[in-house]
Amino acid sequence: MKRLLSLLLCLFAAPALARDAGQAALAEHNEAMFRQLQDVHGLSDRQMQDIRGIFARSGYAGQGNPLITKHPDTPLQCSQKLAQQQVDYANPQFEKICGGKYMAPLYDPKSGRIEDARVCIDQFEFPDIPCAYPVVWVRAREAAEICAAEGKRMCDAHEWEGACQGELDAPDYRFDLAQGVSADAAVSRMRAAHNRVHAGDKRWSYGPEYERGVCATGSFKTPGCPGGGWNLCGSNTYPAGDFPACRSPLGVYDLNGNAAEHMNLPFAPAQMASRGSRELGYTEMKGSWFIFDTYRAHEDWCRWRAPYWHGSRVMDAHSHENYHLGFRCCKDLD
What we know:
334 residues; alpha+beta; four-stranded antiparallel β-sheet
């Protein structure tokens, strides 16, 4: 009887012990990432204090559960590969316009000049550092808060789409279709109208046809991963920028592959981040993730808008998080 009780206690205690060990390792990994973040982006101690607080409250945000995550490439391998290919992501013109490293100006080359851009977007997924793994297990609210702590903001859906397509169009949200219906119905109606308009000019960040091997889409899923779970699903991502050809015409990377990304989908002008809203709208998942060469779970062309998967308000304290879901930020220019 005592043996049976001991066995049962071990079975019940094992998941908690694994979770605690994973989070202890995560805290150590996050601290190294925080130091790199401050060094590369020149953030103040106060900004870092705010960012550390957001990660601490989350308990899971980071570059994946270190105990089960298996990255296909290391940061060192990424750096060596870029050096061999003579790839340098430093861009003095972008940095001058955007006022910071690793951001790209958003504009429409057909009707404007790069110098006239009024908004910039991170070239890589947060922490927006070449050869660093993207942050995942982050809720939409936490992503918005981290962007704000950096002096940036969450992007609206059309801004991410413009970065991917290579031309920033005017906002095209059919707010009239969101009136008087549930959030699920509003997304369904708005996305159907939007996707019909853009189905004829579909493209991926790198070109007009989907191609295997161009982006960070050749990784693997943890065996037994059912679709989510901190102790079940490794965030088997590549380092940011590991695939230099995965580049949009505006110089933005990893929009396809690596981590999917939180964005803001407004149902009204007052919910548009690009118009200064802090209330924000509803969650929109952009891009694709690291196993898409073998498992294309959904469409991922640039202007495609997703169904109301795990939908909520962006600022909902319980908005969705997962092992393959990250974010990048936008920044308004004076």
